[in-house]
Design goal:
Order of helices and strands: EHEHEHEHHHEHEHEEEEHEH
Oligomer: single chain
Number of domains: 2
Strand content: 15-25%
Largest sheet: 6 strands, parallel
CATH superfamily of the largest domain: NAD(P)-binding Rossmann-like Domain
Structural class: alpha/beta
Bound molecules: guanine
Length: 283
């Protein structure tokens, strides 16, 4: 089995972006900047936001941080977004999800200008992805494509099975795989014969959020397996959706958790910020 080292690949990407950000700043005499908004004190979200800001610092992207209390009114968040949409010195706006229960995530996502939507969650960007127009690609699925390409895995014509149909991972992943000419099957909680379907996959993307769910019974010999899970087992230990030790001998390529898909999400966010700045100077 070849271990796909997401940490190393994301580091390479961040190094490339760092160079490009530096040339961009010199050529345009301005920063590339990302506004990061965190509402409340979800501990996982805090870690993600910290890592995103750290990656900004590394790549030379200016991050502007807003930490709002959990009881912030939705209207206040929306007016902060309005203000950031208007500001010419802000290239990207990221609202860390999940939001506190009294806020409507759809409404908040819709409020971010599609031109600053570096998460790729706005329906305009989702629609552009669907029809194959340029736009912001959602970071986790885009990172997975990059992982596969940089590991030398060809996607064209392959049977790709995606387990999970979330708006953040499963659905956009299916569109990106289709764009790469894979034959795509999306499975979910109502899927019948999940084992049989997964067992036919040349490339399996595991994104259901259940600790160590995918055992060797689900894996074809020689399959490429991408584990998007960030789960906790009964002992509270971080693990993926795949039973790594059980399947590792069967796979031709496999991503670890942590150190697989996770770091790629952040690298692609940096890429989207740079892309945004480039598009905005062209206008
Ligand atoms: N919560 C979990 N993943 C993400 C992500 O990629 N972006 C944002 N904004 N929130 C998230």
């Amino acid at each position: 089995m070849n271990l796909i080292d997401g940490k190393k690949i994301s580091q390479d990407i961040k190094d490339e972006i760092k160079e490009e950000v530096s040339s961009f700043k010199e050529a345009n005499n301005r920063d590339v900047s990302l506004a990061v908004i965190l509402v409340g004190d979800d501990s996982a979200s805090k870690v993600y936001v910290k890592n995103k800001k750290k990656a900004c610092e590394y790549t030379g992207i200016k991050s502007v941080s807003y930490e709002l209390p959990a009881e912030t009114k939705e209207e206040e968040l929306l007016s902060l977004i309005d203000e950031l949409n208007e500001r010419s010195d802000i290239d990207g706006i990221l609202v860390q999800l999940p939001l506190p229960k009294h806020m409507d995530e759809n409404k908040v996502t819709l409020r971010i200008s599609p031109e600053k939507d570096v998460d790729g969650f706005h329906p305009v960007n989702v629609g552009n992805l669907l029809i194959g127009n340029p736009g912001f690609l959602p970071c986790t699925p885009a990172g997975i494509i990059e992982l596969l390409k940089r590991s030398g895995v060809s996607i064209d014509g392959k049977r790709c099975v995606i387990a999970g149909r979330s708006n953040i991972v499963g659905k956009p992943m299916s569109l990106l795989m289709l764009r790469e000419n894979a034959t795509v099957t999306v499975c979910h909680s109502h899927t019948k014969e999940l084992k049989e379907i997964c067992k036919r996959a040349d490339i399996l993307i595991a994104a259901i959020g259940k600790p160590r769910f995918f055992t060797r019974d689900y894996i074809k010999e020689g399959a490429v397996v991408i584990d998007v899970g960030m789960d906790r087992d009964a002992e509270g230990k971080l693990c993926g959706d795949c039973d790594f030790d059980d399947i590792k001998e069967l796979c031709s390529y496999l991503t670890p958790v942590p150190g697989g898909v996770g770091p790629m999400t952040i690298a692609m966010l940096m890429k989207n910020c740079l892309f945004s700045a480039k598009m905005r100077v062209k206008k």
